[in-house]
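Here is a typical protein record:
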Amino acid sequence: MTGLGGGAAAPGDYVYFKSVVPLHKISIGSKLWRYYDFGPKAVPPLICIPGIAGTADVYYKQIMSLSMKGYRVISIDVPQVWNHHEWIHSFEKFLDSMNIHHVHICGTSLGGFLAQIFAQYRPRRVKSLVLSNTFLETHKFAAAMPWSPLVSWTPSFLLKRYLLTGIRDGPHEPFIADSVDFVVGQVETLSREDLSSRLILNVNVASVGSLSLPDSFITIMDVST
């Protein structure tokens, strides 16, 4: 399906989602947070953190489905942070600004890694983790990207090309192809600074240490793409 200008048209359920769920933007210190918050406020929320190529919008189906079942879902864009400790402090300030003390976190890829890092250093705030296609350490990404010191000076179109390498490999079933097209469209909305910070987070050498959460509170999903 194509829209005006030949680009991919937005799915009908996404158009409906955008019509009923407002996008919020708040500045906390020097960080701009972009997020959706939907569902009853009386329960600890599920915070959704996208992967390196995703935005808050990629969880729109989960937001609609889970909110109808009584869950509060907050889907975020990872703001422009440049190391993992900055992420921890920034995310904690975001939660504090919304008067949220305890959270469940769902993270995909880089988002799952950031979720684990936060759970490691702020264990009292995290009630459970749902991790999809994520990882425990970044060494292999750093080794595969020897040009990472140049990321901050790399043009946006090259960063996008690097992020999208392999995503369109196929063929895919129609519903998977639609999801791929949706993610590709979201990447096009990211600024050079957004792309740079995510890539740097992905290659800054770090690893997840011991988590205090019991195994029964950690769900791991390995999703074929």
In short: Residues 1-8 have pLDDT under 50 and may be disordered. The CA atoms of residues 107 and 115 lie 6 Å apart. The beta strands are 23-28, 31-38, 46-49, 73-76, 103-108, 126-132, 218-221. The domain at 12-221 is CATH 3.40.50.1820 (Rossmann fold).
